Amino acid sequence: MQQIYGLLPRILGQGTSVLLVEQDVSQALKVADRVHCLLEGRVALAGRPSELTAAQVEQAYFGLARAGGGAA
């Protein structure tokens, strides 16, 4: 997997779009322009990594936002 992350800057630099599905949230946030956290097939959180807090991502990832009545 590290090999893919090493190649991503070159791939993106050539203008190619990449859809990355990753469970390692911290690793994905390092390379993403946009983040979409899915929960049960629906977008639970979306935005640019710089706009999202770790707590928001954690809540979306584990379904806590929905369970607590919050929406993202």
Fold and architecture overview:
The protein is α+β, with helices and mostly antiparallel strands. Helices cover 44% and strands 15% of the residues. It contains four helices and two strands. It has helices at 2-13, 25-31, 54-62, 64-67, and strands at 35-39, 42-47. Strands 1-2 form a two-stranded antiparallel ribbon. A hairpin with a 2-residue loop joins strand 1 and strand 2. The longest helix has 12 residues, at 2-13. The model is unreliable at 67-72 (pLDDT under 50).
Lay out the secondary structure.
Layout: H1 2-13, H2 25-31, E1 35-39, E2 42-47, H3 54-62, H4 64-67
Antiparallel strand pairs: 1-2
Task: Provide a brief overview of the structure.
By secondary structure, the chain is α+β, with helices and mostly antiparallel strands. It has four helices and two strands.
Feature tags:
single chain, 72 residues, alpha+beta, two-stranded antiparallel ribbon, 4 helices, elongated, disordered C terminus
Distance between the termini: 29 Å
Q: Determine the mean pLDDT.
A: 85
- Mind telling me the C-alpha Rg? 13 Å
Helix content: 40-55%
Dominant shape: elongated
Low-confidence parts? 67-72
Helix count, DSSP H or I runs of 4 or more residues? 4
Q: Largest sheet, described in full?
A: 2 strands, antiparallel
Compressed to H and E, one letter per element, the order equals HHEEHH
Would you tell me the structural class of the helices and strands? alpha+beta
What is the total tally of β strands? Answer: 2
Strand order of the biggest β-sheet: 1-2
Strand content: 15-25%
